[in-house]
Every structure is written in C-alpha cells, then in structure tokens.
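Re: the multi-chain job from yesterday

Posting the exact lines I submitted so nobody has to dig through the queue logs.
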Amino acid sequence: MTTQHDISRQWTTRARHGLLSALPADKLLPDGQPTYVASWIYVFGVATVSALVMVIATGCVLAIYGPTWWHVSSIGHFVNSLHLWSVEVFFFAMIVHLWGKFFMAAWRGGRALTWMTGGVTFLTSIGAGLTGYVSQTNFDAQWIATQAKDGINSTGIGSVFNLLDLGQMLMWHIVLLPLAAVALTGLHVLMVRVKGVVPPFATETEHHHG
Amino acid sequence: MYFETLVGAVFPLTHPGHYFHWHFINVSYGNIVVIVLMVVAFVAALVAPFPGRGRRGGHR
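And the result, structure tokens for all chains:
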C-alpha cells in the first residue's frame, strides 16, 4: 500500500517541491523590477533574446524553402538578409550586454552559474555563426570553409568537425548548435529569475550594512 | 536596380576588403566600424536618461 511518506519521496514530488521553492511563479514572471534596472544598459540582454527569436524564426523559414529559394527569389533574398541582420543585432547586443555585466561584476551574489551559462552561450553562438557562414551553399561559404579549416584543424577537433563537409556543417548549424544556444539561453534567463538582476555595487554595500 | 547601383557606388562589394594593419593587428574597416558602434552604444546606454525613471516605483 502506498503511504503519504512514499508519495513524498517520489522523484516527481521532490522535483516539483524543489522547482517551486527555487522559482515560484511570482519570481518567474515578476510584476516589477528593482529601480536600478531602469537603465538602458539592462535593455541589451532582452535585446539579445529578441534577436535570437528572430534568428530562429527566419532560420525556420529558410529551412522550409531551401537554398535555391534563398539564392534566386526576391523574398528568399529578403528572408536570408533578415536572418543575417538578426544575427548581427544578436552579436552586437550580446557584446554590449557582456561589457555591461563584466563591469558590474555580475557574477556577485551566487550568480556564477548565470555568468558561466552566458559565456558558454557566447562561445556556442560563435560556432553557430561559423557553421552558418559555411552552410550558405555559395562561393563565399567555400572560401570561408577553406580559409577556416586550417585554424580548426590546429585545435585538434578537425577529425570530428570538418569545415569542408557541407552536410555535417549544415546539421551542426540547424540542429545541434541552435538546440544548445536556445537551451543555454533558457537556463541563463531562468538563473537570472532565480537569483534576480545583480544590484549595483553601492546598493549591495547598503544592503549588507543595512 | 538603382538602389543596388547606389549602394555599390558607396560600398564597393566586388573589390577586396580594406584592412587596418599594425604589427600583429589586422582588422577589416567594416569590423572597426562595428566595434566603434558597440562602444558608442555602451557609453550611450550608461549616460542616456531612461524614460520614466523618475516616476517609476521599484521594489527597493
């Protein structure tokens, strides 16, 4: 017979209690933010996420119609350009976000995992950018692949990551790296919600002394 | 077509890129422009007033 004690020891029960205590609904979707968040420097994180949404959406449209469409049709060119420029906005906003968080020392107050997931997302995005350039199926892609292969081979990962293999690069670009980037971004945003936005130095000092 | 011709006249995309080269530093002028714009956006984000900051009440 299943007792209340048995139910409370189930992994689903323990996981639910753990998740709800770490991230209650009012922390996951809060009504307001601390006053210090009213600054343009805090806008670049959400700008990065917005650009990522646009990157994924335009990438899905490119995946539906394929290379011939994005090379020869006007609307294909347009969606291809949207994909490129949303990536430009993504990296631009992410770098400004990175500078802002670096000078805030945003890893303070138990936020190391938030900082590290951000760093790994940045590295993953660089991989997604490179595989995107070599997946264009044009001369630009061939040029970049032949120029970059020696650098990649010098790192020792060339045996499992071949820039000249279009099929492999395309699948890294449209399956593995987007999955990793979206999962890491999700974890990063959840960590921000769990720990809250890092306070400015002065506010933190007041908080400790007050 | 007119637009492409106009853009091509200002930014000739069929020619090799131009690079800033000093010792081991080798950066295309296009990338320098982007880096400068990022620095400008960073500084502007620190100094530009945020709309509604005075009115808004926060948690702290």
